[in-house]
Amino acid sequence: MNIKPIPRIPSSSRLSTLKGLLRNTVTAADRSVINQFLVDGEKELQEFQVEISRLQTAILALEARREGLKQMMEKYRSLLSPIHRMPLEVLTNIFKFYCNVNVLEIGTLSPAMTLSAVCGKWRELTLNTPSLWASLSICYCSWEGYELEPLIQLTQLFMERSKTSPLTLDLDFFTSDFDEEEYDPKPPLAILVQHSSRWYDVRWCFMREQMNHPTFEPLRSHLPMLQYLDIRANDEGNPVDEDDTWDLFSDCPCLHTVTLLSMGFPLSDTILLPWQQITVLTVDGNLVKIFRILSHCPSLRQLKLPSMGKLSTGHLYDVQSQELLSLSFKASNAKDLSFLPYLMAPQLTSIGIQGGYFGRRNRGFDRWDEKPLTGFLARSSCSITILRLQWLPITDTQTTLLLGLMPTLRVLSIWECTHANLAKNHVITPSFLNRLTVDHVGLDTVFLPQLTELEFCVVNEDLDQRALLQMLSSRWLPDHQNDHRADVNCLQSFSLIVVGKKEGPSPECFALLQHFSNSGLRITTMYTHEVTSLALNFVHMH
């Protein structure tokens, strides 16, 4: 960069003359010299200012170029980060986890929209991966009172970008009014219905009166890809016509997993489905009508009964479910076990029973009658490998007798039926733990020799920690060094949930269990005073 020379200052002789005037009287001739000096000085000051401005401009330009170079270096330095060494296939899979559910709501970008706004590379990858746009969740209540045009545009955008990918839809229209003119919920639904040939996994919450609305008429016989269907209906006190049927899903050649739950009149009484091909069913309602459905489900492999109506409108008849492998149900009272004497499942391997526990009070039945369950097992002649009991009023003796009928059991989960005082364990007692303990010296038959996974939820104040640790030690056989008990499987995992006081300390055995974890046994521990939230976790886990 060339820099212009700075203008010269007055000569030394002129400066000497001017300095002398500071001590003498100024004459007319001197005034002429002074004026000339000032004129020259003003001119030189202007030249100085021009040069300064030029140099400052040059500095600003250099600083801008410097910052631009810094930004460019940072931009290209980011290419050295590990994520840019990641294959696009791996990055795409990560994106799929992140975009598992795209919730369309006011003021929030969905995961797919967020990824497409990060950078050019991610945008291109996101737009070229239709499956990232194929999962939608719409809750109408979050749009209620707002202009629905953005929702309509978003729905259309996701349908276009998902191209031909199978669609996973979570549609909550419980609060919608199909007769509403200002906030009409039908347009976004109509867009989704147009793409019904791509429906793969659908969860649909709606008012029962909307069942046969013309908006959904195009669905009939146009659901070739649908495999998972979860329908939840609400009557909201409105009268229900028992003769009113819903046959939109009667022709779904790939459908195999169905959930039917209703706040009111059971859905199973009004919906027509291809029952003969259903393999997984979750349903509530009257036991008589549930059994009627079971008689039409020859391929059923998994059955969940989250709630059962009173057995008052008819009588059960025997049903033999030849393919049923897993049965789980909620028993809020003793009558909820009344269906077991009428059911046979020779291939059954898994049973889960949840009692009626809410908060710190047990609202279920007080005494456990083992006859319905033991009779069911005896008639079915099945080999149970998985048993989960939650919040049942069963004793340690009754549990031991029940487990004696399951010599092939591999997975056992027991959650204590804790009453208001949270003070006593009725199943996980010292006697029960001793029964589970393997005797490596004696010749007695081992109790539950194939057990590999164990889970307990117990009351802290009544837990015999020493007996618990002895039981675990006897079943921790990683190397099978004891040939005398070579027929006993080594325990692979143990989960312990301890319920105690809010301010109480964690049990001492938690620290000792860490030794098992360090040796290879999968250990999970939790100390809590909030039992209510565990119910939801149990439902999701099992």
From TrEMBL:
Keywords associated with the record: Coiled coil
SUPFAM superfamilies assigned to the protein according to its UniProt record, in alphabetical order: RNI-like
Keyword presence, Coiled coil: yes
Protein name: F-box domain-containing protein
Residues of the F-box domain: 84-138
Top-level taxon in the UniProt lineage: Eukaryota
A Pfam entry, by short name: F-box-like
Coiled-coil features, chain-numbered ranges: 38-79
